[in-house]
Amino acid sequence: MYLTREEERIYNGEYGWAKQVCMKVLVKLGELFGASRLIPVESAHVSGVSYKTLGDAPADFLEALADADEKAAVEATLNPQSLDPKHLAGRLPENLVKPQRRLCEIFEKMGFKTCYTCTPYYIKAPKRGSHLAWAESSAVVYANSVLGAWTNREGGPSALAAAIIGKTPDCGIHKAENRKPQILIEVKAPLEKEVDFGALGIFLGKVLEDKIPLITGLGKPTFENLKQLGAALASAGMVNMLHYNSAAVKIEKERLEKITVEPKNIQETIEELTTTSTAKPDLVFVGCPHCSFREIREIAEKMSDKKVRADIEFWVCTSRHIKEKANRYVQKIEASGAKIITDTCAVVTWTDKLGIKTIMTNSAKTAHYAPTMNKAEVKLASLEECLKTALKR
Ligand code: F3S
User: Hey, is 309 helix, strand or coil?
Assistant: First the structure.
């Protein structure tokens, strides 16, 4: 791999051990994936911030980096952690709260933006064609497919190294020739609600492996529908971008292998993701990935002036940024007894420690993960059904 003189000096430790370790991580990855050089990134988005998923071992290393006075060299955002400051921190045991707070302080010391969201693009959308080093899989698909930015799916350590060095190996879908569609997906199923898009993502994630699809038959998806599709696709498989309804369809159609998605594939996927038939879940959760401004507004409007049932918790997860921006709707939602949760989500916090055994959600990604990550039974349903369940008649 070719390194500039400056990169070589970092590699040889002339700028200290911490930068050297980060550079070595990037070079090692570059060599593994056939990169010939490093390229600058506009931003990095780091996952592995939640103590629930990270555990104790990496904290000492992260602290050593912070103590060496290492700072992010580019704009660097953070994925959700495990605590919501308003509604959850006070309900969880100190042995979980304390190490999570320590992790947050370490990242803050290193100059990372403490936004704690999986939708950093709602805070600042990356420029079209810009190179990124993002580690949240749902955000990776969205950035590549909807926003037109270019990023591989980084792991937590490589996104961290990229944030500190400001560069990433020039490989994978940083290269134009690796971004072309490799398989044609013809969707023959009517996709009406967000759960249909999520179910399509889970179904395709399992059959595509890492092939980039060109998907036709999506109709006119909203950005939020595409967010659900991409999040589910990335959680069930290794796909990092998709093409949809693009002008490329006519040109590419002939040469691609084809898969057809029938209505029964969507229906069966929704049924498979649903593990409980309970009429009364302990938690109704929307906001995976974190809600957009439009979703918060839609929820507030659909709730009308109804109140949340006393025997069900209703969480709406979003970022601090959107919470502030949508304050008017947030007030309305919270007046119903629902909780606007920021900085975390049902999957990366300890719902089991809160006595939650059944979760109803409109997110296929959450439905996919909750049985293992939350040890919970799940019901996947549309936003309308979630609201109907959570609200008093
Ligand atoms: Fe975000 Fe949590 Fe879903 S991190 S993508 S809301 S699992």
Answer: coil
